[in-house]
Amino acid sequence: MDRIPILRMGDLLLVTIQFELHDRLVMAMQDDLMRLIAETGARGVLIDISALDLVDSFTARVIANTAEMARMMDAETVLVGMQPAVAITLVELGLSFHGVYTALNAEKGVQLLKKIRGPLTGESSDDTAGE
Amino acid sequence: MTPPGNERVPIQSEDDIVRARRIARTYAQELGIGLTNQTKLVTAVSELARNVYVHGGGGTMQIEIVSNRGNQGIRLTFEDHGPGIPDINLAMQDGYTTGNGLGLGLGGAKRLVHEFEIESWVGRGTRVTIVMWA
Ligand SMILES: Nc1ncnc2c1ncn2[C@@H]1O[C@H](COP(=O)(O)OP(=O)(O)OP(=O)(O)O)[C@@H](O)[C@H]1O
Ligand SMILES: [Mg+2]
Question: By CA distance, what is A95's nearest residue in B?
């Protein structure tokens, strides 16, 4: 079975959803992510959905639940890269990602996580060198 | 690919839900429906196809190209022979669910498309018809 790849970058876990979502793929991602948070002690999770041209109520519910579970394990989640048409559709569908942070792109997502969680070791660049 | 004007696809599995979305997207693109309405349409398809699969025990999605005064549109009919819906008004309400969903599928789908119609017969099945105009 396919898996959604999860990348570890220091204190961060980066989930990039690249292809069309099957229900069981979404559920597997949730399991994998929880296991990785426990194993690595990650404090932040970025879920990149920029490649998704459709988010229905099922996927939205799993993402919201995932963020809630991650929070119970002391990791904050930021959803990044939502396409404009997807955002418009979600609001009309009646879904508002309450309690899920969002950012325009991965870079802004990392900045947001830093603001929420304080310094993170995750950036590959040298801007953490002086901390 | 130029889609034919009339097609019926089965909805018997999760894979079929994904396939139904893809086919609807292809038709919408062919008709020149804009990206936002395309996205709304395929999201409605996802909700309704999932209802057919989860609540209706499987069924079909029929696709038709329709036209009205020179304007073309896509009409999708979701049909199953499941248990039916005893109280449609209740089922249409946001937040009402007999499963563990959010209860947003039906009400949400209605908001996402130009036309929406639902008929249901207890013990015999449910039919939902939607139209999105180009
Ligand atoms: N095809 C169907 N056959 C039988 N019952 C249905 C069908 N479609 C919907 N229903 C009933 O209507 C209710 C509301 O449907 P709706 O799609 O709005 O919410 P849901 O499927 O329960 O949750 P969600 O779609 O948000 O995940 C369902 O819980 C179910 O009881
Ligand atoms: Mg539903």
Answer: B104
